[in-house]
Amino acid sequence: MDNSAEELEQPGSRNAQIRFVALAALAGILTGSVGSVFHLLIDWLQAWPRVLATHVDGVVLVAAAALITMCATLVSVYVVRRYAPEAGGSGVQEIEGAMQGLRTVRWQRVLPIKFLTGIVSIASGLVLGREGPTIHIGASFSAAITDFFKVSETERRGMLGAGAAAGLACAFNAPLAAILFIVEETHRQFPYTFRTYMGVIIAAVLATVMTQVIGGTAPDFSMAVASPELYLLPAFVVLGVLLGFLGVSLNAALMWTGSFAARLNGRVPYLYPAVVGLVVGGLFVTMPLAVTGGEHVVTSLAAHSASLQVLLALAVIRYVTMTASYSAGTPGGIFAPILALSMCVGLAFGGIVELVTPHGIPLAFGMAAMGGLFSASVRAPIVGVVLTLELTGAYTMVMPLIVTCMTANMVAEWIGGRPIYDQLLERTLRKAGIDPAAKGEDKTGLA
């Protein structure tokens, strides 16, 4: 812990602790309120293909949907590039960079642009999650609060973590996973003191309260499943191994498509997002399960059985549309798309297990895969376990989830995979011409 953090924790700092927790509470309330409106508007606007289908059909419907999504994508990309390039993508890497003192959260620009273009791009059908924007929005509210109220450097970094936790809690109605995300994912950047840790907790809780008041109290992916038999645990180990390889592959694909899109944009600036928008828009009306963030995909697949061929086809298509959508340059996260992709893979794996044993439960493998692929990609296995439990409400899955997530995380480590946000942050810093070894470690006291 750095000296400033030690000074802030002296016995006489009770009033300062109360003040900081109050600021974190404000960040949580603002994030939960605005984030809930953000989600509700996306859900409402994503009904546009059904409205369009009442006016046109056939080839005209497909062409019209493709053009609508293309236009939405291009508008979002233009606004982001023109006014706030850091608003593109998830935003988690921006917050981690800001906590290290390597990036600046320009909240005056990020808040309106992330909110508006995030709604446009995600509602258009692109395979992007809402959690990335809400995490960035939450941290931006924290940055705004620290600009208005005088705080120390340690408190500033702590407030960024509190806002990020509030954003994730709001996105998934999952406060415990949000708190653990800060503990596990940002352990190198977050300044651990009593007040900053309490700030994260209160921000996440109050953001969840606002989310439940505005949007309801049920877990986002409510599911019920019987506890799998103990003799099936080795099958979850095998699933974890598969997901470990898939997670490393997914991260590599995300980085490669991002580099490819950057090179193509250097030659023809808006060709890549235009093509992505056209393809995704066409799929939105012809194969809706292959696109969108994935929340409705998860619940639909969990409620209605699909054949092995359909599940594998969906997995391949969503793998491609996810990496392509994220590289387009619009705001959007990867958590929800990862959960949808993993549900396809897990259900397919469970269907194969069911052919071998009558006690195989495909849905149990689908739910375990949600945590496993998240763990392999983000490299936060505890968050993967808790997030899946909070989302589904299926606490009968504790043991299979732990086995799957730990296995996926270890396999990803052993084959040389790196956390996706570490890679995204490094790319962001390279583009900005920043050397973290020279500037970041000593400045933030993390050495």
From TrEMBL:
GO MF: voltage-gated chloride channel activity
Pfam family, one: Voltage_CLC
Signal peptide: none
Domain of life, per lineage: Bacteria
Bilayer topology term: Multi-pass membrane protein
CDD domains, A to Z: EriC (cd01031)
Compartment annotation: Membrane
Keyword annotations from UniProtKB, A to Z: Chloride, Ion transport, Membrane, Transmembrane, Transmembrane helix, Transport
Listed name of the protein: H(+)/Cl(-) exchange transporter ClcA
Source organism of this protein record: Martelella mediterranea DSM 17316
Gene: clcA_2
